[in-house]
Amino acid sequence: MMFAVAMTFIDQTIVSIAAPDIVSELGLSSSGMQWVVNAYLLALAAFFALGGRLADLWGPRRVVVAGTLIFVISSVLCGCVPTGDYALTWLIVFRATQGLGAALLFPAALAVVVAVFPVERRGRALALFFGITGALTALGPLLGGWLTDWTWRAIFWVNVPVALVALILTALARISDRRRDEPLDVRGALLIAVGMGVSVLGFQQASVWGWDSAATWACIVGGLAVLYVFRRLEPRTRHPLVDLAVFRDRAFTVDTLVLFFAMLAFVPVFFFASVYAQVSLSASPNQAALYLLYFFVGFAVASQWGGRILDKRGARPAMKTGCVVGAVGFALWAGKLTDLSMHDQWPYAALAGAGIGFILAPASTDAVNRAIDASYGEVTGITQTVRNYAASVGLAVYGTMLTHSMNDHVVDTLETRGVPSDTAHSVARDVTQAITGNGDARTPTGTGPVATTMRDAMSAIRMDFAEANQWVFYGMAVALAIGFLCALRHPGDHGGRTIPETATPPPSLPQG
């Protein structure tokens, strides 16, 4: 199962490295390329809950195989995109179906792993699962840079051998398929897909449309309204897509909240740290990937440690430790960003990664352990939906913080060099959009006074970007601090299966 989901983690990051080559060869706009990236994440957000429910209804093995096939066929078609007018539409459609395949595959794969291990051994097993698969996110840029030197299409085709091995291993593992003879809640699936997809779209496009745009708020508020309708209708549905009774378990709710605040940092840190490395540290894409390895080394080590704590003492100690360690790590890392030294930052990057590592596996495992009637796929779908939604919110909020801070710093830098205020604001907007969108730190060309000033100011602008990123990393520290407050509310038990308050108690045995 780790081999099967490897593709989905690598694919979240590998495309961004090849983006300039894809734009150049296919003649796409930068906004068009952003849709290619977002289509995958949108589909993930929209269909995770459906994937988890289908794993319960159809059996996890069938859904793993179906998700893998959808994912790899879509990957091949993405790599075969023709040049011309239909290139953008082609890529967006098949990136979205890739996301659908991943949304089916991941909850089903995790449900398989959960079902194999008893509760007392589950923490260590899922720590290994999350540690390795999470660390694979860092492999995307390295692999992407190497493959793009040959052809950018190879970043999609590389999924083919991985999928073939995953399908062979799935067949050899002889996974049992426990199915449920229940109908699929189509209404609920449509509501949550629309609600999640539209609200995530609003967050994704906030940096483009602006937070003062009616379209941004129409998507966010409209999506949340649809999710509220879903919340109201699900308890009245005989066989709901998501059994919301699981949220009556306080520990499950706490686990979900801690995951939400942890994911506000975990996924966004990849984007912001890699662009920071390329802009402020003048690193190549491959060097930026190595920079991120410091974070993932801490993450991988702490994941195993957190799994052992969960098995012995429950989720609460691991989550509290992770939130404290992560908040301190991100805060110290933020303070070192302006040193502009990659190697001096590694202890703090590793500490931040360790904090997330302590949280991720214990919180996810404890949540799954509280599944009602062993509905592992459904509960996994819930937690993955929350994680993906938090990542979208984090990217939007931190992206806005970075853009505003960077713009203010560049304006100050240019004005102190004699550039008129109106010109400084215009140039600052262009610079901010370029480097926050693509990690572009190329020296401007031209012989005009503004271009000359820009060339002279490039070192200062690199520092401006580092200072702007400090606000982002401090924001991640704050998110984990809030996660710590949530973790304090965890009851501290080991998390056996709980019976909802409305459930019918088992009949008592006759006396005598």
Automatic annotation (TrEMBL):
Stretches that traverse the bilayer: 34-51, 63-84, 96-119, 126-148, 154-172, 184-203, 209-230, 251-276, 288-306, 471-490
Gene Ontology annotations for the cellular component aspect, listed alphabetically: plasma membrane
Residues of the signal peptide: none
Compartmental location: Cell membrane
Keywords: Antibiotic resistance, Membrane, Transmembrane, Transmembrane helix
InterPro entries tied to this protein: MFS, MFS_dom, MFS_trans_sf
Domain Major facilitator superfamily (MFS) profile per the UniProt entry, residue ranges: 1-495
Annotated GO MF terms: transmembrane transporter activity
Main location: membrane
Any single Pfam family the record assigns to this protein: MFS_1
Name of the protein this chain belongs to: MFS transporter
Lineage of source species: Bacteria, Bacillati, Actinomycetota, Actinomycetes, Kitasatosporales
